[in-house]
Design brief:
16 strands; 301 residues; 9 helices; alpha+beta
Length: 301
């Protein structure tokens, strides 16, 4: 097969591993910077051009689109879909996953376990929102934040009010969530491919930090999932519509709670912790599913 990988840099670990895995299985693969793509949007023959040439004959596309370029990156991916190229993750599903509020609403509709979450627009409703999520300590999240940026732990109601006021003063949209103390600064990253959890790792925040992101000094070890954790991860990926997803779960006293569903999960941490060829499994998913014009979410926004 001829596979395109949409990525800003070929040197990134995840992109490099996907290239290696595709070539090892005998596929032709090319890394394409989505921001250098430009499109001819016509009804009879949609086209994508890249650095002066037309991109044609691709069987599948792997989107590795960063949050900062979601709008343009998904526009390019939609164009590939219009050309009949099989997307590993569809543009609609990626857009859903990048909208924290929308993704939580989709998960809630499917009965997936979530931390108690509040969302409001007016500063006059601050007190009621804090009560709704159980009061301090609580977590305040920017809707547009990624990789732990824009996530604040407020240990008192006064601190929470101050942070919320500051964010609203900047016209930022925020979520307010209950703080799961019993998680102990740890979460579980589950890698879901084609409806199965293929690897999982426990990420532990460094001392004095509650965010467990590996690039913030967190550590990762392989972990065994309970049947309910496994079912929650698979259900979350399916609710968003992702073939490949990193589902972040908190272990709480009332069962597994989904914190986030990532449409472009990094492979370095999970491959090193699990010692599994996750990149090879992703290429295997494409081999199993890639057919022209095969998208499930067309017309569903």
């Amino acid at each position: 097969m001829k596979i395109a990988i949409l990525s800003r840099r070929a040197s990134i670990y995840s992109t490099r591993r996907l290239v290696e895995a595709a070539k090892a299985r005998g596929h032709e693969v090319r890394v394409i910077d989505p921001l250098r793509c430009y499109m001819n949007i016509t009804s009879h023959r949609p086209m994508i051009h890249y650095r002066g040439e037309a991109l044609e004959g691709y069987d599948a596309v792997i989107p590795r689109i960063g949050a900062s370029i979601t709008f343009y990156g998904t526009a390019v991916l939609r164009q590939f879909e219009m050309m009949g190229v099989f997307p590993l993750n569809e543009s609609v599903a990626i857009t859903r996953s990048r909208d924290k509020l929308r993704s939580l609403q989709l998960l809630s509709r499917k009965g997936i376990g979530l931390p108690v979450t509040g969302f409001a627009h007016s500063p006059d409703d601050t007190q009621d929102v804090l009560k709704m999520v159980g009061g301090a300590p609580l977590v305040i999240k920017l809707l547009e934040g990624t990789q732990g940026i824009g996530v604040v732990l407020a240990e008192t109601n006064k601190a929470a009010e101050s942070v919320i006021e500051a964010f609203w003063g900047l016209r930022a949209n925020i979520l307010v969530q209950e703080f799961i103390k019993e998680a102990g600064g740890a979460d579980i990253r589950c890698l879901v491919i084609n409806g199965k959890v293929v690897a999982a790792m426990k990420r532990q925040a460094k001392e004095g930090e509650f965010r467990s992101n590996l690039h913030r000094g967190g550590t990762a070890v392989i972990t065994k999932l309970s049947p309910s954790e496994r079912a929650t991860a698979v259900g979350a990926a399916q609710a968003i519509g992702l073939n490949v997803a990193g589902v972040d779960i908190l272990r709480s006293n009332h069962g597994p709670l989904v914190m986030e569903v990532n449409s472009s999960p990094g492979l370095e941490g999970i491959e090193k912790a699990s010692e599994k060829d996750v990149a090879g499994m992703i290429i295997g998913c494409i081999e199993e599913n890639a057919k022209p014009h095969k998208t499930r979410t067309r017309g569903k926004g």
